[in-house]
Fold this protein.
Amino acid sequence: MKINEFRRMISAYGATAERWPIELRAPALALLARSDSARRLRAEAAGLDGNLDLAPAPGPAGGSLIGAIAALRPPADHPGTTAAAMDRESLLGWFHWPQLAALAMAGVLGFVVGWAQLEGTIFYDGTGDVTNLVFGAESIDELSL
Amino acid sequence: MRRIGRSDGAAYAELVRRHLDRGLALAQRVTGSRVEAEDIMQEAFLRVWATATRWQPGRARFSTWLFRVVLNLCIDGKRRKKPAPLPENFEAIDDTPGAEQRVIDNQRAGIVLLALQALPPRQRAAIALCYYQGLSNLEAAAALSVTVKALESLLIRGRRKLRRSLGSLQEELLHTGNPGDRS
């Protein structure tokens, strides 16, 4: 290891060998054994490490935080067991009941229109009124709409 | 994670117990705030729960992935609005034996925390991962989603700034003994 490589390593990781990249430890220690410059660089880095060590270590999480996080998860409506199940659920989630009802109505309407055209003018009185097309004029009158 | 993907609440609780402390420490180091760190961990574990079905074993260690989520919440979120205050009671009155030294140590610790908080977030995160959390360079780079070379640049710039801002304190410490002996 050259001194410039050592300088870069120690400038990044500090003076403690345990923090150095594992593949650089042996060559760096070998350089330290023979180089005054390397030892001086390490001493400088140790000064900063000493300051960093003064920062207090964050305390562990309390039981209440653990409990709160464990309780935060959504209950039984978790996405499911597989990605496929999740996809199924998201697809179904798209179609809520109003959309399903509208789809069903459109289907019925389409069937009636198609059937009426096939059978002639069973419900169609020629006025172009869609309500008449579906229910017939008499039906509308009966409903008093 | 597979069990969590099957809505196994016990497995989820075990994962929280196993990884919360390290994630919390990282979040607190980066944000400088315990309260904010606790909020971040709640959000991070909600993401764990929500995305467990998509977890792919073997792609990354869970802890590295969790650290990445935590760092994204710490750095990229709109949480960082003002510098975190110094820890509560760090200059509290104390008249027990050795109190004077403890006050000095607390003051020094406060200065170090302020210097760390003054760093750009990604430099602070790099130092938190490598120096305080003890991650290898590969793990830390993965958690930050950068190359090892980019990680080293963050570390070098961060440490250079710290050396400058803590220079006077360092001088003082050199005259009063090695602070590493007390850690």
The first helix of chain A runs from residue 3 to 13. Chain A touches chain B through 41 residues (CB under 8 Å). Chain A has two domains: 3-52, 83-143. The two ends of chain A are 95 Å apart (CA to CA).
